[in-house]
Description:
Elements: H1 5-11, E1 25-32, H2 39-45, E2 53-59, E3 70-75, H3 83-97, E4 102-106, H4 111-114, E5 118-120, H5 123-129, H6 148-160, E6 163-170, H7 172-187, E7 193-198, H8 216-237, E8 241-246, H9 253-262, E9 266-267, H10 270-275, H11 280-296, E10 302-307, H12 310-313, H13 315-329, H14 339-349, H15 352-360, H16 363-368, H17 386-403, E11 413-418, H18 420-423, H19 429-447, E12 453-458, E13 468-473, E14 478-483, E15 486-491, H20 501-515, H21 531-534, H22 539-547
Parallel strand pairs: 3-4, 3-6, 6-7, 7-12, 8-10, 8-11, 9-10
Antiparallel strand pairs: 1-2, 2-13, 4-5, 12-13, 14-15
Helix pairs in contact: 3-5, 3-19, 8-9, 9-20, 11-17, 13-15, 14-15
The structure holds 1,6-di-O-phosphono-beta-D-fructofuranose.
Amino acid sequence: MKKSALQIARAAYQPKLPVTLTGAVMAVEGAPTQSVADQEEIAKLFPNTYGMPELRFEKNPNPMVGKSVNVGVILSGGQAPGGHNVICGLFDGIKRINKDSRLYGFLMGPGGLVDHKYIELTADIIDEYRNTGGFDIIGSGRTKLEKKEQFDKGLEILKQLGISALVIIGGDDSNTNAAILAEYYKAIGAGVQVIGCPKTIDGDLKNEVVEASFGFDTATKVYSELIGNIQRDCFSAKKYWHFIKLMGRSASHIALECALQTQPNVCIISEEVEAKNQTLQDVVNYIADIVAARAARGDNFGTVLIPEGLIEFIPAMKSLIAELNDLLAHNADFSSLDAEAQRKFVIENLSADNSAVYASLPAGVARQLTLDRDPHGNVQVSLIETEKLLSEMVGRRLEEMRAEGKYNGKFSPLHHFFGYEGRCAAPSNFDADYCYALGFNAACLINAGVTGYISSLRNLKKPSVQWLAGGIPISMMFNMERRHGEMKPVIQKALVRIDGTPFQRFAAKRADWAINTQYVFPGPIQYFGPAEVCDQPTKTLHYEHLDK
Ligand code: FBP
């Protein structure tokens, strides 16, 4: 494939490893750990891997000794910038420990392990992918690795290839399953270590011990560049309201980070909507009031950021979606009806409250709520055009306000959805360094002989050379949650904290940004140049560190 000039120049970038990982390391054990909640139940479910200590790597004065190892790697779930560098770091790490080590990549996600689809990742292949975006080196997929039969099928190929360690690069669900797999392989004496790596642009795999998931930094910088460009256009033409939906399956971290970077007129945070028990109409009225206040000053333009998961956080919509999921799951013939018959069927078969909410929605959006479910029977929120739903309802509300003499402006909305534009971007310096170090660190965890750990780097606000490397037992992040009707051990998803500093900073400024145009234009990610331009972490990470 032909390479761009940036790709060629960027291939030579050498990620900056934490100082501790630049030579031989030794693993120092901390105190035994506990899960964040439900300790007794989780200890029972993980008899072989519960309570393990945190690990910290320190420089080892003795030379590095390690035996050769065959390692498998899997990319799981949605793409996130930097995935290739995790694999490159892992490759370089196992080769440094012993040059005869080998790396195998399972193809198209966890399904590749179960179906025995793999390639050996040699130095030639690895060198093609250094510092590039995307997951195309081996592909990714959303097959859930959770059943004993899958684990056993996977073990067949691991044994065949002499693989004694598996690295799973994924989000909260994939790392949950990595811990279950680690426990199972340990229980049956399979002789296979399992190590996780924290990935997702959504930024919702983080907690006291995992400071950030990779990909969030680059993706939010790409979206912020685009939002900044739109704001400059909107400020120049002064005639459009831009409704911009941003990815993030449930948490609003992406929208909040982009708001902190670009200072839009409006940004909705789903977690706040839920906390205040707001209705869809409350959100619409809030936006319409800002549109009207700006119009009164002659400013008939603006930007509105909307998190992808918003509608599932609005209590009335949540209840509607839950009943719809159920209704559609039990009516297999639904998809064979025409659009009008589907609408009639839904309105007639929902409970009175939910039926009223459904009927009140613009027809296009109501229809989107009944489209195909994902493999788990859930609405695919990224297909729902929340940005159009809101702008249409804001338009209606403004007409009511006009009739009441409270609005006298012009409202011309435009719509955008930013998600795929950022998921495969060339990783920022932060993500290039973070991912490479996560992979390299995973190799050190393998060499330390542990299983059921997630690769961990802390102190991320500091330059990468000062990051602290180690491993966290995944079971430490567990609590019990109801999933598909059953209580299951899972990693707690990190939602935006309304009492956290990132949200508080935004909340303190938003009234000013709403009325007095205060746009910031971050511009494109810079890979070469001064550190204050190229190496800055996200504002979210910056403010979160103020909380510590
Ligand atoms: P992960 O949590 O798997 O990293 O995926 C995140 C995400 O990008 C969400 O923001 C988005 O809702 C979803 O993936 C879309 O995934 P897909 O393209 O597979 O529908």
